[in-house]
């Protein structure tokens, strides 16, 4: 498997994970089958669409490569049909969301760098790729987006994007290192939730 194939696989795994996260949130809100599939689709592909539009990769992969849309819909439907066997929806949503955050930060940053975007811009695009789907999911399900609250969410994505950019500059872009980077981002997000770490807020 070459680097391009590895990036595609990581991207599709991220799509499936965020779709499952969106579908889980939709089920928790008692949406119907179409609503669950739609929220899963938007959660999975919203960030990637923003990324592709910013780097002028049109049409976005969400529309130009059938594998992305099919992966998102299949993952959403799988969660819909399997949900009676699943429990603790809030924990499931948070875990899947953290995993998607890590995967999409890595793939979004690498795609921006491959498109010739300078390091600072690539970091921002990587962050937007990671948080865009979750932002759309929360808005569609009537929740205050996690990225706008005190949770360490966008900060974890930005830090991960910086790490990936540094590793890319050092020539370290093998699948094992990128997987470790995604796991690190996911771990930071989960530890922040467990320890209730938060960014500073303005005093009332």
UniProtKB/TrEMBL annotation:
Keywords: Cell membrane, Membrane, Transmembrane, Transmembrane helix. The keyword Nuclease does not apply. It is found in: Cell membrane. The chain crosses the membrane at residues 6-26, 33-54, 66-82, 94-113, 119-140, 152-170, 176-194. Residues 9-83, 95-167 form the Glycine transporter domain. It comes from the Bacteria. InterPro entries: Gly_transporter. It is a multi-pass membrane protein. Belongs to the UPF0126 family. This is TRIC cation channel family protein. The lineage of its organism: Bacteria, Bacillati, Actinomycetota, Actinomycetes, Micromonosporales.
